[in-house]
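Q: Structure tokens for this one, please.
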Amino acid sequence: MTDAAGPALLLDTYSLFFRAYHALPDMRTTRGEPTAAMYGFLALFLKLLRERQPMSIAFALDVKEETFRRRRYAEYKAGRDAVPERLLEQLTRLHELLSLLEVPVHYVPGYEADDVLATLARERRERDEPALVVSGDRDLLQVAHGSVKVLFAGARGKDAVLYGAAEVEARFGVAPQALPSWVALVGDPSDNLPKVPGIGPRTATELVRRFGNMEGVLHGLSQVASPKLRADLELYREQIIMTEQLARLEDRLALPTEPRTLPISPRAFEQLRALFVELEFQSLIPRLAALAPKDLI
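A: Here is the predicted structure, written as tokens:
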């Protein structure tokens, strides 16, 4: 935690918490309190501290208020399963954890945690300071360039993958900043964003690489050789524009909290240990002790 060369660790809180819940079987204390999501989240957090040695940390949260994306497109993220009751029961503990860590927790009404993280990432990038965004949300791959990398937490049983600009381009065929344009053509089922029928990833990649973004594609329709492809792009013009706008993260939010990131204090390590004892996370206590200041735990 003291290595000046380490990145700022920027965490997509609910995304990681929900994935932790789904990755583990039901866990409970001897009192009957459900703890699987908390255990998985904390195990990942300690792993990040050990392996990435961040110089500072911040968390980003979604808020209940309707976002600008939902106001623009009522079907945005529609059809998602309800949050399981056992997961909801652990949210109070999650917020207790965020409080005792004593590092910044950022959120902005009307926007998503992704937008908050994109703003934090841009600020770090503009100062050429390293940052590591950790999330299970593919949308955040668009911030993986310059001094910012994204650690994409895989689904259950899959390893996390580290992305910089080269890794994003190797996977999708376009630069990170162009991913919203790519999504405008192929859609995004996880966010319920519609695709253009008949256009697959290969065609989308070719169009984005050739024209740069959807404005370039739509202005350059006369240069598209296939009559059917031209017709489809024209037919779905308004949808394409809307989807690109919804997929692009807002990275210039006015974040109210300063400083943006902080290291974990010695007191926070002590408070973490007390929480581990209360939640009966005996296996995590030695991992915490190995990371805490010497002789503290």
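A few notes: The mean pLDDT is 94. The CA atoms of residues 270 and 297 lie 7 Å apart.
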